[in-house]
Every structure is written in structure tokens, then in C-alpha cells.
Amino acid sequence: MNGLSKSKVIQLCKNKRVLLLTHEHADLDSFCSAAMFQRFLNKQKINSTIAVPSHINEQAKHISESLNINYISNPNLTNFDIVLIFDLNSFEQLGSLKESFMNLVSKKLIEVIVFDHHVSNKNCIVYTGNCVIDETMFSTTQLIYNFLDTPNTKPKSKDFDSVMHFLNCVGILEDTGHFIVSSSKAFSDFAISLKKSNKSYADVLAFTKNEFDNAERLALLKAAQRSQIIQIKEVVLITSEVSFFQSFVATKLLNFGAHIALVSGIEKSKLCVLSARADSLFKEKNNFNLVRDLLIPLKEKLGGEIGGHSGAAQWKGKGTPQEVLSAATEILKKRF
Ligand SMILES: [Mn+2]
């Protein structure tokens, strides 16, 4: 869905106080997308501020330091006229900014533009009009690249410089899990950007190395210790509970060898989160889609909000982790 053109975005941002906002727990894709867009706006002589709701992960912090990309945490939204959001489209993913954001949007005190590659629905922040949403894109950086750089671009498109190409490569490599999932288009966009970035593949890899801090390390090891292995016919499921970093932990638990990983916990906001991951070969063989086959039925049962892709998705709502995990397990038992 693409309700916007480049010139419309420029027109909306001109002479406005522009905020480029990532999702909570800003990751490489979200952060690099915002950074790409800041460079694009700079070329149009439009100043902007990059912000993260509160937490930024180690990899995103590393790239911001290495490339000198400044950002602020926990921005005061009332200081801005227009907010461009990258790699998210649900109020829940705004973390601590959710309340003030919703308040300003409802009073029409800020304008919002969404750039996202996740599945959108009517509960999203914006799903028609001021948005560029394309689920066929493997990262938001790839979406930005295609939005800004037209297919017939000249070799040196003035709106797209080598740093932006590099940021695109980092976002694609990260969000494809180092090309565990991809498409011919994602490969070719990556190849073009790598060439135009004037950097090597090793340079891109260096930024996507899985550095994690001790808080993430402990969350993972505790979750591994508490995990339960459930076999539903041929399907091997791993479930666990942890209060932080559920999506990171779910990815890691899946990599231990399960077909599906489900990790639940109560967040600071007191809401319960369920992060789900599914193995890509398994998905293909079983025509399985986490959003369609697990999270939509879960939402019908428990309410809440959902988002994500076929292989990586999240539910958030009211309940205890035990209730949510057992409801999810029941749904999977019926499916298989
Ligand atoms: Mn992404």
C-alpha cells in the first residue's frame, strides 16, 4: 500500500518540526531506515531529529556511534509537528510514548507518516493515506530504498548516496536473518546497494554481528533453563517465559532446533507479550503462517493486538504468560 509520493512527503515536512521515530527496542532495520530518511530530508534542506522511544539495542547503538548518527531517547512529542515512524505500525510498539502519541494524534496536533513492511490492519496507527506499507519488502530499509530510488534511477541518483546504500544493506541483511529468508528482489536490491555503498560485504556483516549485552544474555539463559519442549505429532515446539527481550529470546530458542518457539512475559506496561518464531523450512512444508494460523485465532480468544510476519510475530494484551502460552499451544494442537 503506497498512499504517498516522494514529493508529497517533502511537501508535508517542509518548514515543519520533523521527528523520525523508531519502534521501542530500536533495532538495526528501524534505526537505519530513520537514518536513511534523515539523509534524504537533509538533501531537501529539511532538518529532522531521530528518536527512539526508550531502549535501543546494541547493534543499532553501535552503528549510530560508528557513523555518527545522532538520536535522542524518549522525545517530547509536543516539540514536533510531524512524526515519521519506521518499521512499526501499532501503538503498542511505541512503548512509553504510546499515551502521549495517541493523545496528540487524536487531537490532530501531530501528523503521522508510516513506513513499514509488516502486515497492516485496521487497528494500525495509519493504514491508508499517509503511509508506505509493503509486506513484500524484507526490511524497512529496502522499502525506503524502493520508495526513494526509482527503478530507472541514474547511476548517481542525487537523492540516494553511498551511506544510504550502506544502511540499506545493513537493514536487509539483518531482517532477512543473513538471508535465511529472501527474494530475488531483496538479493538484487542488496547487490545494487552494496556496490553503490563503496563498502565490502564484510563491512556490512560486521554491523550485523550478534553482539548482545549481559541483560540479553541472562534473559536468554534463564528462558532456556525454564523452557518446555512440547511435541505435537511431528511438530516440535519450545515455550518459555521471561520478563524482557521476548523476541530476541524466541529467535535464539528457535535456533536451538525447534520448529516453533513461543516466549511470553509481562512487560513494564503490565501487558503480557507473546513472541512467536517459526522455522522457515517448516513453514513452507506445512503452509504455516504464524499470523494467520496462530495469532489471529489467539486474538479471537484473548483480545489484544498482533503484528508481524509469517515467521516472526507478536501478540500483546491482557493475561498471564501461562494462560497465553497454554491458549497458543491449544491452537497449535488443533492446527496440527
Ligand atoms: Mn524490520
What does this protein structure show overall?
- This protein has 336 residues and is an alpha/beta fold.
- It has two domains: 6-208, inorganic pyrophosphatase (n-terminal core), CATH 3.90.1640; 215-335, DHHA2 domain (Diaminopimelate Epimerase, Chain A, domain 1, Roll).
- It is built from 13 helices and twelve strands.
- The chain has a six-stranded parallel beta sheet, covered by helices on one side. A six-stranded mixed beta sheet has the order 7-8-9-10-12-11, sandwiched between helices.
- α2 packs parallel to α5 (140-148).
- The longest helix is centred in the first third of the chain and has 16 residues, at 28-43.
- The model has no long low-confidence stretch (mean pLDDT 93).
- Manganese (II) ion binds at residues 29, 87, 117, 139-140, 175.
Q: What tags apply to this protein structure?
A:
336 residues, 2 domains, binds manganese (II) ion, Diaminopimelate Epimerase, Chain A, domain 1, 12 strands, 13 helices, alpha/beta, inorganic pyrophosphatase (n-terminal core), six-stranded mixed β-sheet
In a few lines, what is going on in this structure?
The chain contains 13 helices and twelve strands. It is an alpha/beta fold and 336 residues long.
Helical content stands at 40-55%
Number of domains: 2
Low-confidence blocks of residues:
none
What is the spatial order of strands in the main beta sheet?
Answer: 3-2-1-4-5-6
How would you describe the shape? globular
DSSP summary, beta strand count: 12
The CATH architecture term of the largest domain is: Alpha-Beta Complex
Instruction: Please tell me how large the radius of gyration is.
Output: 20 Å
Ligand list: manganese (II) ion
User: Main β-sheet: number of strands, strand sense, barrel status?
Assistant: 6 strands, parallel
CATH fold field value of the largest domain: inorganic pyrophosphatase (n-terminal core)
Span between N and C termini?
A: 33 Å
Structural class: alpha/beta
The share of residues in extended strands comes to 15-25%
List SSEs in N-to-C order.
HEHEHEEHEEHHHHHEEHEEHHEEH
Q: What is the CATH class designation of the largest domain?
A: Alpha Beta
Number of helices: 13
- CATH superfamily placement of the largest domain: inorganic pyrophosphatase (n-terminal core)
Mean pLDDT: 93
